[in-house]
Structure formats: structure tokens, C-alpha cells
Amino acid sequence: MVKSGITSATKLKGQSLATPSLGNTQDVALRYWLKKQGLTATATGGGDVGIKPVTPNSAAVLEFKSGQIGGGWEPAPYDVQMVADGGRVLVNEASLWPGGQFVTTDLVVTQSFLAAHPSAVSGLLKGQIDANTFIHQHTAAAEAAANAELTSATGKGLKSSVLSASFQQITFTNDPIASSLAADAQHAVAVGLLKPVSNIAGLYDLGPLNKLLAAAGEPQVSP
Q1: Is 199 helix (H, G, I), strand (E, B) or coil?
Q2: 8 Å CB contact between 42 and 34
Q3: Which of 39, 42, 81, 98 lies in disulfide reach of 34, CB 3.0 to 4.6 Å?
Q4: Burial class (CB in 10 A: 0-12, 13-18, 19+), 48
Q5: Is the peptide bond between 77 and the residue preceding it cis, with omega within 30 degrees of 0?
Q6: CB contact at 8 A, 178 and 223
Q7: Is the pLDDT confidence value at 94 over 90?
């Protein structure tokens, strides 16, 4: 999301853009995209485009609205709010991935915890599968529940238009989309935020998940 006058990558030169934090998925995605456009951005905020980690994400929306930054690579609902405040979408990250699918959040536990508490992990996974099913079958109710929780946690919920637009951007899936995590790690290496890594697939033990998916009549997933 960028100011309305920014219509191409070249117009980002000299601008300051927000990301949630240094090295997180949005930060890596922005840096890698800029690199592909021939633009530089250093870990300390220098280069052709200044990247400014802003926490919490809501602060980036306020800085954009006040003109302190030219835009940001932000997750929902903050991207939606930036557009509502006069911004425009310069790049939709989904357009950069095969089939428009990429992981933003994986559910993980340590190997020691899995070995010691398999029933707890199974219950956690079943709860996630049930939650995803509920979201797909009862989207309006899921949106209302999410907004109620957000209101309870922060004292303020989202406008219904922002909430609905945010849900439409997110695919709630049981598939960890492991291939995109491997690609993301390569992108982080390419922009100098990570040392080369190998065997990313070793992070995944999908046996417990696939067992529950089979029982629920859902498609199996693979690393």
C-alpha cells in the first residue's frame, strides 16, 4: 500500500515504507521485491528505499495517514485501513506466488513437546481444523467472533467493511504450504537477512495432522 501518487517501483525512491518487524515475512517480501525491481534497501533503513519496522502494526496506519511514511507492506487489516485512508495497492503479494498461495502463519510445537504430549498436540490440531471448517461454513459468524475478541483485547473492533475485506484476503487452510516457507527462507538469504539454510522440509512432521484430516474426510497435506 502506497500513497496514491506512487504508481510504479521507480517512484518509491526516497520513500520510507513500513513493515511489521525486521526479518518477518512481510519485511522479507518487501526487500526481495525491491531487489527484483533493482532498488536497494539496507537493514538499517538506508538505500534507495527506507524500510522502517513499525510496531504495533496499527501505528503504521497512523504514520501513513499523517504522511510520515509513503506506504507499507502490511498484513490485513492494516493494508485495508491504509487504502481506506487514501492509499492504493501497488503490489498484491498473492500475485508473486504460485497459485496465489503462501504461508503467513504456521502452527508449530517443539519435538520434545510433541513426544511428551501427543494428545495435547492432537487436540490443538483438531481445534484448528474445526475452526477452519467453521470459518468456511459460517463466515459472518466467524467475522463477528473475531471482532468481539479484538474488541475485548484492545477495546476497539474493526469497521464491518474493513473486517470483511480482511477476511476475503486470507485463506484459512490446514495446508502449511511448506514450499512457500522454503522459498521465503531463500528470499531472506538473498536480501542478507539470513544465512543459507538447508532441509527446511525437516521442520514438518505432518503425520498427526494428516491422521486427523483423514478422520475428518479432509484432503491430506504434504511438505
Answers
A1: coil
A2: no
A3: 39
A4: middle
A5: yes
A6: yes
A7: yes
Residues 30, 17 contacting (CB under 8 angstroms): yes
Structure pTM? Answer: 0.91
Mean pLDDT over 40-49 rounds to: 93
Residue 198 has pLDDT above 90, yes or no: no
Are 37 and 31 spatial neighbours (Cβ–Cβ below 8 Å)? no
CA distances from 156 to 5, 11, 58, 150 (A): 31, 35, 12, 7
Sequence-ordered list of residues with C-beta below 8 angstroms from that of 211, at least 6 positions apart, any chain:
none
pLDDT (tens digit per residue) in 97-146: 999 999 988 899 999 999 999 999 999 999 999 999 999 999 999 999 99
Measure the CA angle with vertex 122, ends 108 and 106; round to 5°.
20
The single-letter code of the amino acid at 54 is: V
Q: What is the predicted pLDDT for the residue at 21?
A: 95
Separation CA 120–CA 72 (nearest Å): 38
Residue 51: phi, psi to the nearest 5?
-105, 125
Q: For residue 222, which of 205, 212, 214 has the smallest C-alpha distance?
A: 205
Would you state the cell numbers that stand for residue 40, as one nine-digit string? 536497494
Rounded Cα–Cα distance for residues 192 and 186 (Å): 10
